[in-house]
Amino acid sequence: MLLFSTILPARADLEPEKFYQAMVDWNAKAADANRVEPLDWNGEMVCHFQKDNLSLEFDCLPDENLYGARFLKSEDGINWRTDAILFGNVHRILIQLDRTYSEDAANLNQDFSTPMLISVMMDNDLFANDDVLPYSARPWLLNKSDRPTLEKIFFGDHYQSIPVVLITGDFQGNLPVNAASLAWRLKGAAHVLVLTEDQEGPQILPAEMPWWGHGFGTKINKRYQISVTYPNREETTEFFRPEDYQDRQQLQDDICSRIFHYNLQLENGNLPAWMVLKAHKIQRQAIEETRQYKDNEASMNEVFDLLNEDVSSLTSQIQDLQQENQAMLLSIKAAGGKGKTEGLLALGQEQELYPGEIQDFVLEAIRTALKLSNPEGRKAAIYEDLLKANPSTGEIETRSAIIRDVLGRGDGLDKHAPELKRAGFTITADHKHYKLVYGNDGRYTFSFGKTPSDYRAAKNNISIVLSKLFK
Questions:
Q1: What element of type H or E holds 322?
Q2: What are phi and psi of 273, to 5 degrees?
Q3: 196 neighbors 172 (Cβ within 8 angstroms)
């Protein structure tokens, strides 16, 4: 359910780093229950931060000048989403607040205001002054010197980008609503103006030019009422009179509800900008991966074979295992009988890449051979006896799990250098790629692009690494 949506003009010189810095500042100012920490941001435009039920993600398409951020919170069956998208080519910022909830979710507090993110962006000077009035979380207190401003807003050719709320009080200066509270709730969604009163009446314009006789609709015609002027509508003004409401809070809630509803009816209310950004990025990654596969036919064929194992491939593997088993039996027989302390097999030229590696692979081959043997035969008895007498180190399982976890995350591999080191890798990086070398043996070198891949590419990478190292 989309709760709030608005598009505000961004400064023409706004850099994406400043846009993302506003998101970081917003997170720092959030309440403890809504703050993702620790958030050690060092300027990345593609990154993801997680804390319990909270997450903050940055993503972008620089060649389209499109930059986005999404905050997620899950609590009591309710999922809150706050999206901010910078459209750099047209200098606009879209801000949306959304929620989804389960059937047992608690009812929401109806005292809704626009996201605090808008106030942070105002403080960080992200918005352009396209309107006559600046964007603010505070009300604009009018006096006679503001007459030119009012003429531009209500009678001139200038159209405000967001609605204008005009509040006038009584002779004693009392206002029908709390202007400061209303301005805070409507920040980024409407300008709030307060007309200071005197004994001569509510108009600032001279008597020969009353504003209810000019422009595109009546703006105000008596004290102690509120009008909302909407941009680009045939009937541009809506009046709210205190006598029609039980109290000031009900009046304020109704004004906010009307303006929020107006914003949701605009085109931007139906714009799933974050999902569009993600879809474009996935499409770009698919195109790039396809190009890479075409440039490297051997790699493409390898991935194809891993994903399309058929009966002939399985049969070939079984034959290879049977040959290994026969060779192993000959070696065991040549090594002597029970109780031989120097080992069953003589080592060749290959050096172990971790202690116990060769034994792990031999035991793995014996396990496979045992599955293919007659369970009541002599061969099976020998295999079982060897497995009982020689426990494996467990390193293959441990290292495989680390590889699946790290490569499956899709973020920067340099963040996981300690885990990769535990799995036996050294990692280096250039401008576009990471290079992993297993066991400091150049024969087992893997290269991955720095651009995060989708789950399919990650799955392929995992299969290639595990197949080359452990199968």
A1: helix 311-335
A2: -60, -40
A3: no
Residue 316 is predicted with a pLDDT of 55
* Backbone φ/ψ region at 5: left (φ over 0), alpha (ψ -120 to 50), beta: beta
Backbone angles phi, psi at 447, to 5 degrees: -120, 130
Residue holding tokens 């576009």? 432
What is the structure's pLDDT at 24? 95
Considering only the C-alpha atoms of the chain, give the largest distance between any 2 of them, rounded to a whole number of Å. Answer: 119
**Residue 340 burial (C-beta neighbours within 10 Å; 0-12, 13-18, 19+):** exposed
Q: How far is CA 60 from the centre of its chain?
A: 10
Token output for 175? 């206002």
Beta strands 433-438 and 237-240, pairing class? unpaired
Which ranges of the chain have pLDDT less than 50?
Answer: 102-109, 199-218, 269, 326-327, 330-341
Predicted confidence at residue 142, as pLDDT, reads: 79
* Contact in structure between 162 and 262 (CB atoms under 8 Å): no
Q: Locate tokens 């060769």: which residue?
A: 358
φ and ψ of 428, to 5 deg: -130, 165
Q: In the prediction, which pLDDT does 98 show?
A: 82
Cα dihedral 333, 338, 343, 348 in deg (nearest 10): 0
Contact between residue 457 and residue 289 where contact means Cβ atoms under 8 Å apart = yes
Taken in order 462, 466, 469, 471, the sign of the CA dihedral is negative
Which pLDDT belongs to residue 174?
Answer: 83
What DSSP character marks residue 127? B
What six digits make up the tokens of 201? 């009446």
DSSP-derived letter for residue 10 is B
Q: How far is CA 397 from CA 102, 401, 413, in A?
A: 38, 6, 20
AA letter at 204: I
Distance CA 262, CA 54 (A): 30
User: Residue length, the chain?
Assistant: 471
CA-to-CA distance for 248 and 254, rounded, in angstroms? 10
Please name every residue paired with 191 in a beta bridge, in sequence order, or none if there are none: 164
Is 0.90 topped by the overall pTM? no
Task: Say how far apart CA 316 and CA 157 lie, in whole Å.
Answer: 80
The values of phi and psi at residue 58, to 5°, are -110, 140
Instruction: State both tokens at 399.
Output: 């290292």
Q: What integer pLDDT is reported at residue 158 of this predicted model?
A: 64
